[in-house]
Amino acid sequence: MTSNTNELTTVVTSDKNQTVKLAKALLTQARQRKKQGQTVLEGVHLIDAALRSDYPFAQILLAESAQHHAEVQQILTRLPTYISILVLSDALYQSIRSLGAGIDIMAIVNIPMPRLSMITSDCLILNDVQDSGNVGTLLRTAAAVGIDTVLCTSATAQAWSPKTLRAGMGAQFALSIYENLSVADVLNCVQIPLLATSSHTDTLIYEHDLQAPVAWIMGHEGQGVCAELMQCATPIALPQPNGQESLNVAIAGSLCLYETLRQRHYS
């Protein structure tokens, strides 16, 4: 890559600027992210994670006061020279950002839309998990244990929304994420055993053989895994000796993924 740190002198001050309007819409509206096929990475950490994964950028926006920040300069030197950089007045940048005070830089990127094919290796299925924090945590855990395929049914929170990106800490760049799937899509393409946590079974996770490829299903925070998927899955129990009603879906999913890892590498 060639250095992209030329002095940036033109400062945008109007919220009527088309790129500014686009960034604001992408930060705040799920409908616009879906329509445009784009999202926004806010802050140095996510942009750095994208750069380390050679993820392509469409546009960089930064606040005037952040131009000469050491971490911003380090990012700019790693960008290809064809990437457009837009400098906003501090007041304008602060009016559109969704993060609090920090290093004011963001990037507009295209959302990947991989084509779904038959799945015969480990995967994670998010069945209408609606909280962005839970989705981000599950994506981060999947990436950590080496599962790189995630299937999301249509009511699942957007995997590439700014909030989910922050919760995932850049895990999205290490994953193949398929979104807006129907239950039929999932059942048609997943060729490995489906497993789902349930309180209505005596099969404890520690007693179930997880050596072969599996598809873990994590369900809606209130309603759990839908009946159609549950009918095709093996129910697995997570022990709760103190009798609590249920675990948070992100916690339950993380326990399942790490027990899978333990059985294969640390048993």
Automatic annotation (TrEMBL):
Keywords: Methyltransferase, Transferase
GO molecular function annotations of the record: RNA binding; RNA methyltransferase activity
Pfam families per UniProt: MRM3-like_sub_bind, SpoU_methylase
Domain MRM3-like substrate binding: 17-96
Span of domain tRNA/rRNA methyltransferase SpoU type: 124-258
UniProt record similarity statement: Belongs to the class IV-like SAM-binding methyltransferase superfamily. RNA methyltransferase TrmH family.
Protein name: RNA methyltransferase
Species the sequence originates in: Psychrobacter frigidicola
